[in-house]
Structures are given as structure tokens and as C-alpha cells.
């Protein structure tokens, strides 16, 4: 099968001349060619949401359900792109603080879905949280703590310092 | 699992798309959002030589206001954009509800209106992995001559699970189908065929480019029943429309989806309500008329008896909702 050269910007880093084939999905290339293993491969049917990444608009999309060639020249953000070297993103801090992680397999997808929601709705309503998170499944910890983390992400610094007794 | 071998072709203009479809339409599967196509390619159920990506065609991604108060919507619009569109929400609330009812937000962020309108029919005997399918005999969908759902049938009974066409039918929407050098308008009510294999009148060299909605001042409603609200295909869904206010209703239309190979227009119950108004007595009578219009029901995705029950329940709920508007 023919190979193609594409350019893809992931977390602000532009990967020029990525060699990809027609039948690879965005997920195949993020994990395989680029080697960012944070984004997980789950059901590959569009039901579990663990492969969620954010597109250039900050929308949550399923990287296993789209050709990689579709994204030639575009920019995406994966879980690795949230934290900078010194600090975690607010939503990541909230997940840590509220214990919204158990086995961790779904967590990258859950966090990227939550991030997409918080991009447009920093203080989402219950309904907006349910709506945004419906496409991503956690099979161990349940969704209660995840929702708690999302609800409080906008004021997480305050919550954490209060808990630490500052 | 990797997708099967194929050639990915991206077109950036409608002209190039229609040219490609003329040359290779029979060997092509159009990919708009791709959320259903890629899934089925991974199952090896769809094995096109060419996946033709139309996601970047700007000409089919606009929502235009028409002078008569209607809208002309590009089939390439993402469902998320349409669900948030103020004009659609204001003028066609049932249509907006049906868009929000499709799958999950992740899917709606990339899936398109045209993709949902053209959604291939689904069946649990075929929409399964290749290995799984090896355990059952070939059927119409896999180059055999049998339908597992109704063994004696000469037709494929796969289900049309699309939600957005239902309100589009009651709203009298018209689809624009284009092929190279030619364009035809087909009312969406005439677009679907009761055949799981050949479920629309769309030809291999054609593309659904636009959906035109005439103005509508009537009450409309869309209701969907699914195992999980957040992401599932419907087990049954309904779109309903009535003119007038309160119990008075001059014109009524009711369309059921996801229980057969095509949406079902309920003529007799609608006529009855139009005559008698949306009264409790008329609703009860209308419910009794529903089953006869459903034709043969299959136990695909839900038991036939349950589907008949859902159809009645949805008719009742939809009519009561209309009465309250």
C-alpha cells in the first residue's frame, strides 16, 4: 500500500514528514509512529471514548474513528499536551485531588473529554457534564468522582490549598 | 485492528468530489465524519477500494437563510454545529432535538448531517467482527442470498437507525442530490426504500449536498427511546407535527424510525387525530391504529412485540407533548 508524508502538530510540536499509510487511523499514528502512548486504544467502535483527543478547536474527537490522512496539516492535543513541565493542568489536579482515577485506563480519554467541555464551559452545569461525558466510559471508579473533579476544576487551586490547611 | 487496505482520497471541492464519484463511484465509500464508515470498515463489512473524504468541502458546510423563512443546510455540516445553531433551534426545535439525540458528543463533534441521513442500515448478524460473521451463513449484506432476520424473505431486513431524517420528513425537507453536471431534488419522504440493502434512492455517483427546510409554524416534537440516552442507536424514535393549538389540529403527521428498514409514516393515526383533535379518546383510538401500519416487525435489536409496544407508547407521548405546546 502507498505511503504518504504528512505533517501533524501534536501538543504544539510539529511532526514533519510522518510516514503514514491510507489505512491508519489518527490513533495508530499517535501511538505508533509518534510514540505518545498516553492516548489509549479501547473498543475501536466509538463507544468507550478512551482514544479521545482534542482538535484545533478544542473539541473532543475519537482518534480511532478517523483516518490519519484527514488530519494532514492540522493540530491536535493529547493528554501529554495538558501539563507543562512544571505543573499539571487544573483538570488533572482536580482528578488527583478528588481521586477520580482507579485503574487509569480510561483516564486520558476522560480528561481530554472533560478538557473539551471546560474549554467552552469553565463552570459547566450538571446537564452539560452528563452530555459531554456520555461518550466516555469508566468501568471501575464510576463517574461520581469524575463529575466532582470537573465541577470543581475552575477553583481547584483554592480547594487544594484549603485542604492543605493554608 | 488496522483498517482494510484501501486508497484514501481527499477532495477539497464539490467539483472534484463529483468527478471522483463519476469515475469511481461503484468502488468508493464517501467518508464525511467517518464515525460509522470507519467502524464498519474495521469490521470488514465495508471494503471499498477508495475512501473519499469530503470533510473539507466548504460548499456543503453552510447554513443559509432562505427568503421564505426556511433554511438550506449543507450536508457536510457537523452535527455539533447544527445542534448549536440558533436558527435551527428557533425554527425547527424537533430537528434540533433529533440532532442532539445522535450518539455521543464525541461522535457529533465530527459526524455530519449528510452522514446521518445516509447512515447504512444495521443488523446484528452483520455489524459484528469478521471472525464472528464466519460463524453464520452469508446473507444479503455479505454476498449471500438470505436474510437471517426473516429467513423466508427476499429482502434484507436490517434496521435504518438514523434519527435526524424523522423530523426532516415531518417538516417536508427536500434533499439535493448532485452528480457531475446534474442536480436533482428529492423530498426526504421519498428518499428511503424498504430494503436493507438498497435503502435509499442515492446512486453510486451521487452525493447528498444540501437539505432544504420549508418554513414551519406548526408544533413539532422528537422523542427517542434507547438503552442508554448518552450514546445508543434508537430502539424506536418518533417525530410528530401538528398545526393548530391545544387539542385542535388541522394537519398532523407522525413518523416512526428505527423499527424497520425505513422510516414509517403513520397515515391512519394521523388522519384520526386531524379529524378528532388531540383528545385523550382520539389518542387512544390512534394508538390502536398504529400496529397495522408497521407491517412485519422483526426481533432485530429489540423483540418485535416490544417494538410494537414502543411504537404505541411513542405515538401517545408525542401527541400528548404536541397538545401541551
Structure commentary:
Chain A is an alpha+beta fold. Chain A folds into two domains: 3-81, Roll (Ubiquitin-like (UB roll)), CATH 3.10.20.30; 90-163, DNA polymerase, domain 1. In chain A, 34% of the residues lie in helices and 15% in strands. Chain A is built from six helices and five strands. In chain A, the strands form two sheets. In chain A, strands 2-1-5 form a three-stranded mixed sheet, with helices on one face. The termini of chain A are far apart. Chain B has 325 residues and is of the alpha+beta class. Among the domains of chain B are: 58-117 and 160-213, Uridine Diphospho-n-acetylenolpyruvylglucosamine Reductase, domain 3 (2-Layer Sandwich), CATH 3.30.465.10; 219-324, Enolase-like, domain 1, CATH 3.30.390. Chain B has helices at 14-24, 37-42, 79-83, 86-91, 93-100, 105-108, 113-117, 130-133, 165-170, 267-276, 280-293, 304-324; strands at 7-10, 28-31, 50-53, 63-65, 71-74, 174-179, 182-187, 207-213, 219-225, 236-242, 252-257, 264-265. Chain B has a five-stranded antiparallel sheet. In chain B, a hairpin with a 6-residue loop joins strand 11 and strand 12. The termini of chain B are far apart. Chain A binds chain B through residues 1-2, 22-25, 28, 44-47, 49, 52, 55, 59-62, 65-67, 69-70, 113, 116, 130-132, 134-136, and chain B through 1-8, 10, 31, 34-35, 38-39, 42, 51, 53, 55, 80, 103-107, 109-110, 228-231.
Amino acid at each position: 500500500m502507498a505511503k504518504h508524508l504528512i505533517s501533524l502538530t501534536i501538543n504544539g510540536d510539529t511532526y514533519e514528514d510522518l510516514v503514514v499509510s491510507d489505512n491508519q487511523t489518527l490513533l495508530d499514528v499517535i501511538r505508533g509512529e509518534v510514540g505518545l502512548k498516553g492516548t489509549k486504544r479501547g473498543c475501536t467502535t466509538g463507544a468507550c471514548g478512551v482514544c479521545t483527543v482534542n482538535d484545533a478547536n478544542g473539541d473532543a474527537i475519537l482518534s480511532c474513528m478517523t483516518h490519519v490522512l484527514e488530519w494532514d496539516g492540522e493540530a491536535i492535543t493529547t493528554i501529554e499536551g495538558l501539563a507543562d513541565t512544571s505543573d499539571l493542568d487544573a483538570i488533572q489536579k482536580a482528578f488527583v485531588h478528588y481521586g477520580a482515577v482507579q485503574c487509569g485506563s480510561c483516564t486520558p480519554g476522560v480528561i481530554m473529554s472533560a478538557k473539551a467541555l471546560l474549554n467552552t464551559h469553565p463552570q459547566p452545569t450538571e446537564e452539560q457534564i452528563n452530555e459531554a461525558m456520555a461518550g466516555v466510559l469508566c468501568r471501575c471508579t464510576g463517574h461520581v468522582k469524575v463529575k466532582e473533579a470537573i465541577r470543581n476544576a475552575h477553583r481547584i487551586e483554592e480547594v487544594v490549598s484549603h485542604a492543605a490547611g493554608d | 485492528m488496522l483498517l482494510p487496505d484501501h486508497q484514501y482520497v481527499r477532495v477539497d471541492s464539490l467539483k472534484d468530489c463529483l468527478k471522483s464519484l463519476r469515475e469511481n463511484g461503484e468502488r468508493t465509500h464517501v467518508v464525511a465524519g467517518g464515525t460509522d464508515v470507519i467502524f464498519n470498515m474495521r469490521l470488514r463489512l465495508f471494503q471499498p477500494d477508495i475512501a473519499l473524504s469530503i470533510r473539507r468541502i466548504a460548499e456543503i458546510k453552510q447554513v443559509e437563510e432562505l427568503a421564505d423563512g426556511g433554511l438550506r443546510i449543507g450536508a457536510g455540516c457537523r452535527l455539533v454545529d447544527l445542534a448549536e445553531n440558533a436558527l435551527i433551534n428557533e425554527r425547527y426545535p424537533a430537528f434540533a432535538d433529533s440532532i442532539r439525540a445522535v450518539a455521543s458528543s464525541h461522535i457529533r463533534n465530527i459526524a455530519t448531517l449528510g452522514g446521518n441521513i445516509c447512515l447504512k442500515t444495521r443488523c446484528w448478524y452483520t455489524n459484528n467482527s469478521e471472525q464472528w460473521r464466519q460463524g453464520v451463513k452469508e446473507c444479503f449484506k455479505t454476498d449471500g442470498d438470505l436474510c437471517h432476520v426473516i429467513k423466508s424473505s427476499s429482502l434484507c431486513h436490517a434496521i435504518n437507525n438514523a434519527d435526524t431524517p424523522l423530523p426532516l420528513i415531518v417538516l417536508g425537507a427536500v434533499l439535493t442530490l448532485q452528480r457531475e453536471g446534474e442536480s436533482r431534488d428529492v423530498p426526504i419522504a421519498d428518499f428511503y426504500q424498504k430494503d436493507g440493502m438498497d435503502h435509499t434512492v442515492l446512486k453510486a455517483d451521487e452525493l447528498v449536498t444540501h437539505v432544504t427546510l420549508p418554513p414551519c409554524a406548526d408544533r413539532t416534537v422528537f422523542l427517542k427511546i434507547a438503552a442508554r440516552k448518552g450514546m445508543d442507536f434508537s430502539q424506536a424514535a418518533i417525530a410528530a407535527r401538528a398545526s393548530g393549538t391545544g387539542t385542535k389540529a388541522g394537519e398532523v403527521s407522525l413518523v416512526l424510525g428505527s423499527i424497520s428498514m425505513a422510516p414509517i409514516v403513520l397515515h391512519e393515526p394521523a388522519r384520526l387525530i386531524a379529524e378528532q383533535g388531540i383528545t385523550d379518546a382520539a389518542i387512544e383510538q390512534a394508538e390502536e391504529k398504529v400496529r397495522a401500519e408497521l407491517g412485519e416487525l422483526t426481533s432485530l435489536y429489540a423483540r418485535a412485540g416490544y417494538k410494537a409496544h414502543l411504537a404505541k407508547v411513542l405515538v401517545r407521548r408525542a401527541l400528548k407533548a404536541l397538545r401541551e405546546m
